[in-house]
Queue: 3 jobs
Job 1
Amino acid sequence: MNSYYSVSQLNTQIKSILENTFLNISIQGEISNLTYHNSGHIYFSIKDEKSTLSCVMFRSNARNLKFTLKVGQKVNLSANITVYVPRGNYQLIVTNISPDGVGELQLAYEQLKAKLQIKGYFDKSTKKQFPKFPKTIYIITSNTGAAIEDMKKILNFRYPLASMVLFPTLVQGDGAKENIVQNIKKADNIAKDGDIIIVGRGGGSIEDLWAFNEECVADAIFLANTPIISAVGHENDFVISDFVADLRASTPSNAIEISTPDINELQLYITTLYDEFSNSYKRIILNKQQQLDHTKKLFFQHSFKSKFDMVEKNISYLKTQFINNFKSILDQKQTILDHLQNNFILNEPSKKDKKGFAQITKDSKIVDLQKIKINDIISIQTSKVSLDCKVLKTSVQ
C-alpha cells in the first residue's frame, strides 16, 4: 500500500531541506517590487532575465543599511532561504545587501548628496557670514585626538583674543552621529553674535569619517543659526558636512586659520594706520596753521587799526603833497610877482620923463643898447612920446 505525504509534511520536509542546504548563500540580481514598511522591514523581489525570488530584510538588519534601495538597482545579497509552510511559499531572508559595481558607502554618499542638493542644503544663498573677529570658537571634536591640540596651538599663536570651548565628541563608531548632532545643538543654543562653530576630526578611512556623512548631522548643521565650519579629515577628504556647512576647511588646523585674523598682521596694519593717521594729522595741522596765519594776516589787513593807519598815511601824504604844491604855487606866483615888479620898476613913468633920458624897448621889452643890432626896430619912449626907429648904425666905445 502506498504511503502518502500530507501537504504540511511535504512543505515541512522541503523547508528543512532548503534551509539546511541553502544556508548563507550569495545571490546577484535586480531589485523589483520594493516596499519600505512602517515596521522598518524591507520587502522586495530579486530577479534576473528569467526568474524572480521574493525577499525580506528585517528591521534588525535593515537599520544597518547605509544606502537606499531603488527599483532596477543591481545588488549583491547575503541571504538564507526559508519556506512558509502554510502556503508552501519560499523566500529569501536577506542579512546584507551591497550595490554591484560600487561600494556600499560610496553609493550611500552619492545618494545622500543628491538628496540634500535637491533640498537646497548646498545653496550659496543659505551660507551664513563669518565674523571678522570671532569672540568664541566652539569646537566639536574628540578631546583625545591630535586635531584639538593643533587647533589650540594655532589659535594661541594666531589670534589669542578669541576663546575656545571644546565639546568632547565621539567622531566615529556607534553613537557618533547622535553625539555630533547633540553637541551642534548645544553649541548653537549658547552661541552669541560673533561666535562660530567648528565641526571636525583628523584623517581616516571612509568608514572612520562616515559619521559626517549621516543625514541627521547634515540636518543639524543646516538648521543651526551659528556659522559652522566643517573640518573633517585631510585636504582630499570630502564628506557631506563639507557641502552643508557654511565653510569647508581642508583640515582642523586650517579651520582656525581661515576663521581668525593673524594678530601679527593686525598689529602691522594698526601700525600702518597709526603712521598714516599721524602723517595726515600733521598735514592737517600744518594746513590749518597756514590757513590761520593767512586769516590773521587778512584780519590785520582789514582791521580798523590797519585801516586807520592807512588813512593816516594817506592824510599825511596828502598833507605833504598839499604843502609842496602850495609852496610850488607860491614860488611860481612869487616869480611872476618879482617879474611884474621888475617890469613895473623899469616901466615906471617917472623914469621915462627925465630930460635926456628915454626908455628903449624891442618887441615891447626893455633891452640893453649893447644888444641892439643894425636894422632892429626899436621903440624910444617917454611917458608922453613914443618913437618907432630903425637902427642904421651902431658903434661901441
Job 2
Amino acid sequence: MTFDLWWLAYPLLGIVVGFLAGLLGIGGGGILVPMLTALFLAQSFPREQVIHMALGTSMATIVLTSVSSLRAHHSRGAVNCGIVWRITPGILAGTFFGTFFASRLAAVPLAIFFACFISFVACQMWFGVKPKPSRELPRRVGMTAVGLFIGFISALVAIGGGSLSVPFMLWCNVDARHAIGTSAAIGFPIALAGTIGYLVNGWSNTGMPPYTLGYIHLPALVLAGGASILMAPIGASCAHRMPVDILRKIFAGILILLALEMLTSVFR
C-alpha cells in the first residue's frame, strides 16, 4: 500500500470526531461527511462518487466510534438499555434500506438534503424548543416507527443518529445526559446496517479510487476510526461535567457550520 500525504489528515479528523462523539452522543457523521467530501475532492476522486464514498466511509467509521463512546457512557450509567432494545429493530431496517435509496441519488441533491436537515435540527436545539412536561416515550410500535425514520434519515446523511435520537429523547423528557449516552448506543446498529448497505451498493462500481471497498475508503476508515476510538472516552468524560445548556448550544453550532461546509465543498 502506497502512503499518500493526504492520509495525514484522516487521524486529525478522527481526533475531532471521537471527542465530539463522546461529548455529544453523535456518531460523528455530521462532521465526517462534509470533511471527507472536501478531502476526497482535493484528491481528485471521481466527483460523482465522492458524496457516496463520504457517506459509506463515515458509516464504517461510526461503527468504531460508537463502540468506544458507548462503553464510556455505559460505565457512567448513562445508557437506557430499554430504549435501545425497543428502537433497534426499526433502526436496522430503516438504515439498511435507506442506503439503497441514497446510493441512487445524485451528489448535489444529497448534499442539499443533508445541509437542510442538519440545519433544521440545529435550530431546534439552539433555541431550546421545550417539550410538554407530560410527554413520554411512545410504546413498542411507536418506538419501532421512530427507529425506522431515524435509521432511514441516518442512511441518507450517514450520521450515527445522534442528531435525531438526542432531540427525540429530549422531546420525550429523557434526561439530557442519559439521552446522549443512549444515543451513543443507538449509533452502533445504525452504523453497522449502514456500513453493510453502502458496501453492497458500491461493490459493482468501476473506476473507484485505490483501497476502496464498495463506497468505503479503507485508509480513511482505519486512520480516522483508530484516532476516534482513543478520543471518544475523553469527550464522554467532559459531557458529564458540562452544563446541559452549553452542550446543546455546542451541538447546534457545530451542526450549522458543517452544513455550510458541505454545501461549499459540493458547489465549489
Job 3
Amino acid sequence: MSETELTGDNLFQNPYPVYARLREEEPVAFFEGTSEYFITRFEDCRIVGSTDRVFVPSDSPNRPEARVMGMPNVLSMSGEEHELLRQGIDENLTVEAVRGYVGALTRPVVERYIAELEPRGEANLTADLFEPISVRCIGDFIGLDETPNETLVEWFRSMSAGLQNVSGDPEVYARLDRAVADIDAQLGALYERVVESPDRTLMSHVVHGGLPAGQTRTLESILPTMKVIILGGLQEPGHAAANAATGLLFNPEQAAAVVAEPEEYALRAFDEGLRWIAPIGVTPRVAAEDFETAGVTIPAGSSVAIVMASANRDPDRYDDPDSFDMNRKKKPHLAFGFRPHFCSGHALARAIGEIALEETFRQLDGLRLDDSRPITAKGWRFRGVADLPARWDA
C-alpha cells in the first residue's frame, strides 16, 4: 500500500503525504472510511468554510462527532441557538479578557512543571511538560480544578481515538464510553455547583451566559458542548506547543532566537507550529445544496471535511510549506477554523502556548533533541507530536 493512498491507517500515521497527493490529483476526494468529501486545497477550503449558506454544521447522528460528543453541540448548531450559546462560551475568552487573567492562570503552572522537570535533564516534552500544562490550565479554567491531570489526559485521548476509529474497533469505543461516563458524572457535580453559586469558570458561563437573568441551561443540553470544549481545549494548547517546540528543535538557529528573545519569538513560533502541524486537522460540514468546487459537484446532503491541516501546507499558499519556519512571511492559516464556528478559545490557546514556549526555552539550558529515540506523531482529525524526546543541561 502506498503511503499516499487515502486510508484510515495512512491518515493516522502521517496524513501529509496523502494530502499532498490529493491536492495535486484529487483536491475534492470522497473518503469511504468516513463517508465524506475531503477538501484539501487552501482556496477551496476557504471557499467552503466561508460559504455558510451552503455548507452548514452537520447534526447527523451518523457522524463520528455524534458518537463521541453527542448532539446537538456548539459545532452542530446554527442561528440564534448557536449565537446565544456562543455568548456564554465567549464571554471570558475575548482577547482583552484573556490578557487580564492568563498570566495568573498559566505562569504558576508552567513554573511548577518546569521546576519539577529541570533536574532530570531529559524528558518527553509532550507527555511530561506540554500536556500537563495544557490540561491543568484549561481544566482549571473550565472548573475541573480537582480533577487530576491523568484523568483529563485520558478523557481527551479516549475521545480523540473514538473520533478517528475508522475501523470501528470495539475496544476503542469501550474506552471512549468509560471516559464519557466519567465526564458526565464529574460535569454533573460541577453543574450543580455553578447553578447554586455562579462563578468565573467556563462551566458557569456556559450554564448562565446568553440567557435572561435567572435562567439556566439544563445539564443535558450542555453536556455535548462541554465535551467539544474538553476534547479541543484540553489538548490543543499543549499539542500546538509540542509541535512548535519540535519545529524549533529541528532548526537550532530558530531555537537560539527563542532562547535569546523569548518574548519576541515565542508567539511567532507557536503560530508557525499551528500551521505546520494543525492540532485540529478537520472541521465537518454538510452541503445544503449541490455545490461545485475544483471541478467536482458535491451533492446536497453530503458530508464534507474541510481539511485545514492540508490547506495549511498548500504550496500555492505557502513557500516550502512542509518546513517549519517561524520567520516566514506572515499569512493567516486555517488552524482555528471558520466563522461563525471559529474556535472560541483561540486567544487563550495562543497565550498559554506562548508562555509555555517562552519559559521552556528560557529555563531549560541547552535544550536539544534526544537522538537516542525517534520523535513520534500520530492522528489526523487531531494530530500532535506524542513523543518529543529532549535533553538539556541539568
